[in-house]
């Protein structure tokens, strides 16, 4: 806040408080010539009389006490521009104190699960309950309360994982986040195969997911295969199985994050996609990240008692 605005706030506050004080004093004061409290000569219906009685002193004094309290409050807690007040109170400081108390209670709750492996936590019903609660507060906005996802947000209940579905891979995703980039290949492909090049690649990609590779006599798919092997193979592999190391999805499993319709794939291949999974490690901390990762892992894995855990 600039100095000018600071003084503007101070003057405005003082003007209001002093103005209310003056108005209270002025209206409560009786002046020479005022009618007596019982004598105004205003009558209605013969028996209804208007009086001019002042407010009771205790009522007026109550207002004065409230004004004095307001000055004391502003001097103690601050309210005159950027003046902090004698008490040095601030909403930020209050938030930090309350957050520290709440975090201390949470640490006690999460302490038994500190450092445990994801699949070990997935066998603990209470840990899963806590993980589900964390998921609802942080992850459900994108992935949905049922974790089924939506267009552009992966389904976490199936066995398809673009970045790998092992316990520690899921934990890495939660803690450090992921950034998946599909480059825009439209102009490159058109330069290689003409204006219909993107459609050729779409035909071949659809063929990859069909039994026995689909119709081998499909002209568009045959043209698309050549283009695919010149551009797409670097990330998705020659067989279209993808690469979890770079987040390149498997093109043969029938799962399409942004849809498998022709228009959706034209956008994906021609214009590219950019998906970001935020890093939650600094916000949740290690233990809560492990709990939510365990819950997510449990949605598509049945942890078996006595199974070996991964540290």
Automatic annotation (TrEMBL):
Subcellular location: Cell inner membrane
GO annotation, cellular component aspect: plasma membrane
Listed SUPFAM superfamilies: Cytochrome c (SSF46626)
Molecular function terms from GO: electron transfer activity; heme binding; metal ion binding; oxidoreductase activity
Cofactor binding note: Binds 2 heme C groups per subunit.
Record-listed heme c 1 binding positions: 139, 142-143, 277
Top-level taxonomic group: Bacteria
Positions contributing to heme c 2 binding: 182, 232, 235-236
Lineage, uppermost ranks: Bacteria, Pseudomonadati, Pseudomonadota, Gammaproteobacteria, Lysobacterales
Gene (UniProt): ccoP
Biological process according to GO: oxidative phosphorylation; proton transmembrane transport
Family affiliation: Belongs to the CcoP / FixP family.
Swiss-Prot/TrEMBL keywords: Cell inner membrane, Cell membrane, Electron transport, Heme, Hydrogen ion transport, Ion transport, Iron, Membrane, Metal-binding, Oxidoreductase, Repeat, Respiratory chain, Transmembrane, Transmembrane helix, Transport
Organism of origin: Thermomonas fusca
Residue spans crossing the bilayer: 6-26, 58-78
Pathway: Energy metabolism; oxidative phosphorylation
Main location: membrane
Identification of the protein by name: Cbb3-type cytochrome c oxidase subunit
InterPro entries in the cross-refs: CcoP_N (IPR032858), CcoP_N_sf (IPR038414), Cyt_c-like_dom (IPR009056), Cyt_c-like_dom_sf (IPR036909), Cyt_c_oxidase_cbb3_su3 (IPR004678), Cytochrome_c_Oxidase_Subunit (IPR050597)
Role description: C-type cytochrome. Part of the cbb3-type cytochrome c oxidase complex.
Domain Cytochrome c: 126-209, 219-300
């Amino acid at each position: 806040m600039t100095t000018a605005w600071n003084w503007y706030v101070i003057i405005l506050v003082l003007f209001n408080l002093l103005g209310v004080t003056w108005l209270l004093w002025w209206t409560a004061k009786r002046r020479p010539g005022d009618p007596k409290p019982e004598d105004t000569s205003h009558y209605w219906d013969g028996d209804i009389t208007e009086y001019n009685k002042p407010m009771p002193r205790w009522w007026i004094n109550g207002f004065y006490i409230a004004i004095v309290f307001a000055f004391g409050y502003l001097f103690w807690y601050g309210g005159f521009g950027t003046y902090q007040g004698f008490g040095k109170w601030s909403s930020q400081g209050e938030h930090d104190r309350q957050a520290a108390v709440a975090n201390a209670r949470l640490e006690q709750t999460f302490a038994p699960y500190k450092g445990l492996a994801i699949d070990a936590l997935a066998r603990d019903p209470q840990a899963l309950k806590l993980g589900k609660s964390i998921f609802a507060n942080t992850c459900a906005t994108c992935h949905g309360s049922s974790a089924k996802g939506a267009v552009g947000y992966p389904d976490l209940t199936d066995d398809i994982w673009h970045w790998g579905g092992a316990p520690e891979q899921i934990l890495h995703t939660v803690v450090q986040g992921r950034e998946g980039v599909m480059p825009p290949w439209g102009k490159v492909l058109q330069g290689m195969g003409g204006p219909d090049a993107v459609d050729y690649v779409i035909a071949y990609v659809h063929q990859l997911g069909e039994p026995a590779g689909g119709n081998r006599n499909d002209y568009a798919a045959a043209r698309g295969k050549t283009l695919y092997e010149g551009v797409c193979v670097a990330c998705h592999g020659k067989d279209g199985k993808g690469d979890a190391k770079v987040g390149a999805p498997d093109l043969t499993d029938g799962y399409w994050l942004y849809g498998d319709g022709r228009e959706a794939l034209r956008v994906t291949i021609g214009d590219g996609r950019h998906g970001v999974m935020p890093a939650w490690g600094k916000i949740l901390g290690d233990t809560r990240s492990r709990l939510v990762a365990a819950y997510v892992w449990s949605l598509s894995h049945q942890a078996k008692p006595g199974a070996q855990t991964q540290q």
